[in-house]
Write a structure and sequence with these properties.
By secondary structure, the chain is α/β, with parallel strands linked by helices. It has a single domain, classed as Hexapeptide repeat proteins (UDP N-Acetylglucosamine Acyltransferase, domain 1, 3 Solenoid), CATH 2.160.10. 15% of the residues lie in helices and 30% in strands. The protein has two helices and 20 strands. Strands 3-6-9-14-17-19-20 form a seven-stranded mixed sheet. The protein has a five-stranded parallel sheet with strand order 2-5-8-13-16, with helices on one face. The longest helix is centred in the N-terminal third of the chain and has 17 residues. It is globular. The chain starts with a strand and ends with a strand.
């Protein structure tokens, strides 16, 4: 399910309205002032700040201070999940992380793209879903609209362009199934 942005012609103005842009500026200022400098053990504090800005955050979630979250109101994080140092959650569209999901350092989850076939290259958002017990290893990139199924492991620096099956180990550019994973 893809959705177009507020402005379908980015040559005539920004993709998002003024309210969204102001909210994102406020979010960045608050994250920088209240979270970016915090030591690693302050996961509960960072989870609270995410909740205040509309993220759905489960119990025992670990979000590191250097993680970059574009719009927390488009983010859902299940119990026991972790978002590593330097991870980028470009949540122009909805990003949903299940329970006990690991998003390693430097991972980029990108829920927005542009329709290059249309004049003005309108923004198109597509949700990303990472199901329970999945692990996306260091510096992998996940394209808009992808679902990483339960228990799937994505190898470091992989590029995920399509849904990947449950309980498998996947890697590459584009990522492909290498072998099954034990449950």
């Amino acid at each position: 399910m893809a959705s177009k942005s507020v402005n379908s012609n980015t040559r005539e103005g920004p993709s998002f309205g003024l309210g969204n842009r102001v909210a994102r500026v406020l979010w960045k200022v608050v994250w920088f002032c209240l979270c970016r400098w915090t030591p690693p053990p302050l996961h509960r504090w960072r989870s609270l700040v995410l909740r205040i800005f509309g993220a759905e955050v489960g119990a025992g979630v670990h979000v590191y201070a250097s993680a970059q979250i574009w719009a927390p109101w488009n983010l859902k994080i299940g119990d026991g999940s972790g978002i590593g140092r330097g991870a980028i959650l470009y949540s122009q569209g909805r990003i949903t992380l299940g329970r006990r999901v690991v998003i390693s350092q430097g991972v980029h989850l990108c829920a927005g793209t542009h329709d290059f076939e249309e004049p003005g290259f309108p923004l198109v958002t597509k949700p990303i879903v990472v199901e329970d017990n999945a692990w996306i290893a260091a510096e992998a990139f996940v394209h808009p609209g992808v679902t990483v199924k339960e228990g799937c492991v994505i190898g470091a620096r992989s590029v995920v362009v399509e849904d990947l099956p449950e309980w498998t180990v996947c890697s590459g550019f584009p990522a492909r199934v290498l072998r099954p994973r034990k449950r």
